[in-house]
Design a protein that fits this description.
Oligomer: single chain
Distance between the termini: 34 Å
Helix content: 55-70%
Number of domains: 2
Strand content: under 5%
Order of helices and strands: HHHHHHHHHHH
Radius of gyration: 19 Å
Shape: globular
Structural class: mainly alpha
Number of strands: 0
Length: about 250
């Protein structure tokens, strides 16, 4: 139970970060709004996020936490859909309470990376891109467009394409990139991450799998090569064969 508990609290910390890192006092104020099931005093938030409680918080507290984070994201111009909805978080909470593996919400890599760890790191990657895009980084916005094209999330792909174009990314047009081009970009992102060293192998796998799922042959080859090696160990870098988008 301790492992599932810790992982869930870590996920709540990342949720707050992805929502723009509202202060405890801001979260307390937002929790007083109509429709929020539970008020969130700063002392409660501090105890939960700093591991001072032995048990998971009640669902009403978690639901309030999620709703407040989504509201703060909307107020600060961040996309709330990237944070997960209340139903998804309830599934996470129930799994943690029952000490079961967390259910997957997004896409993660099944090639030797433990599923729970891969899902957690994938979520961090997307959350980090969202934060960077919100700060004006055009490459991060375009990466999000590519990711959402390949995961079939058309509204999100259109949104991030628009943001990337507004931020003057040279590859962003009026519409999201076609699937084949998005797969090429994902493969190139994977190359850059793999060449950066073992610390980014999990992110490389994520990008390679996105491309491989849409038939990109070189991405399939790299996934096979990575599958042949132990998780977290460096492998020979791929040969660069095409222009590369910016590094992670």
């Amino acid at each position: 139970m301790a492992g599932a508990h810790s992982a869930f609290i870590e996920a709540l910390i990342e949720l707050r970060e992805s929502a723009g890192q509202p202060s405890y006092s801001q979260m307390h104020r937002l929790s007083r709004a109509q429709g929020i099931p539970k008020e969130l005093p700063p002392s409660t938030l501090n105890d939960i996020l700093n591991g001072k409680r032995e048990r998971l918080p009640d669902w009403s507290v978690v639901a309030s936490f999620v709703m407040v984070c989504r509201h703060h994201a909307e107020l600060t111009g961040l996309p709330a859909y990237a944070l997960g909805d209340v139903a998804q978080w309830q599934a996470h909470w129930r799994a943690a309470r029952n000490a079961q593996p967390l259910p997957a919400v997004g896409s993660y890599d099944l090639y030797t990376t433990p599923a729970e760890e891969a899902e957690r790191r994938t979520t961090r990657t997307v959350a980090r891109l969202v934060r960077r895009a919100a700060d004006g980084d055009a490459d991060s916005a375009y990466r999000l467009a590519v990711i959402h094209v390949l995961t079939g999330e058309s509204p999100a792909a259109r949104y991030w394409t628009h943001v990337a174009r507004r931020q003057r990314h040279p590859g962003a047009g009026d519409v999201p990139p076609p699937v084949a081009l998005a797969a090429d970009h994902a493969y190139a992102y994977g190359q850059r991450c793999e060449q950066a060293g073992p610390a980014k192998l999990d992110i490389a796998r994520f990008y390679y799998k996105l491309a491989a799922d849409h038939g990109h042959p070189r991405a399939v080859e790299r996934l096979r090569a990575l599958r042949a090696g132990p998780y977290g160990k460096p492998l020979p870098a791929p040969i660069q064969t095409e222009p590369r988008p910016g590094d992670e």
